[in-house]
Design goal:
About 40% of the residues lie in helices and about 15% in strands. By secondary structure, it is an alpha+beta fold. The chain is globular. Residues about 1-25 have low confidence and may be disordered.
Amino acid sequence: MDTYINKLRGLASAAAGAVQSKAEQNYEFTVSAHTARGTSGLWTLYDATRHSTQQLATVWVFDKRFFASGLNKQLLDARARTLVTARLMEEAGHLARLRHPNIVQLMEPIEETRTTLVFVTERVVMSLADVLASHRERKELDELEIQEGLVCVSRALQFLHTDARRVHGNVTPSSVLIGPTGEWKLAGLGFSQPADTPASEYASGYVPTHTRPELEYAAPECMEGGCMVPASDVFAFGCLIAAVHSPDGRSPLEAQNDVGAYRRAAASLGARVTSMLSDPLSRVVQQMVAVDASQRLTLQQFQSSAYFDGVLSATLRYLAS
């Protein structure tokens, strides 16, 4: 582990060609190319292969020089930088403890150096956020593929809620990773908390990026200092489903990282969902994003909803069970 950590120092900001050159030497993992941005956009992902087994892997690298670049130096004070680093460390730590077929599998634990954080997982090729940001990739997603992916994510969340008794806390397109054969897996667990943990109330105005869960997917109870509950993840998941089906790949809660904008968008969320989606999905998502957490669909109800009616969808549910 130490050898490949030493080799990967500083790679986060290197060009793909430089990564290729540095990775050709004989270390535990051979890094072949930069492929994507990871969860929260802070991780840089590199394709890799384990020498001993030829197992495909992904190396996740966070370059701490991020804190000194551009506006980050002004917007992220020492406390915020410490918080972001802790969240990133926790993200890998939760992957080490939480084992499920629909959660990204950790292969090597996180290591911290003076300039980087690095860990290794099974091979992933991009995040769902990458797909939604690309018009071409978004057009290539067919409905059956989306349904299969959503079932996988919902089962990962069920495991978190029921077996681990945790709330994910930041279910967004960037927390869903896509594997080499198109399978969707959950990651981005840096904000995960035990169920019923009080949520920190958001201050008014602008919220520095990366120090809080994404506003565009935050449940109302989390905004007002209430408790994070499994239904909070259902709300975020409903917004994610709407984003996947929207023409621009955006959440129906267009908060622009501002609490005031969030509250204005939340007031018309039902109408927004209706305009974005057609039935039966529109009705399903509206039940998932209900203001009252106790009135939201459960994940089990989502999986058996009218959205999945049809022979192909029923087959998908059977195969995923």
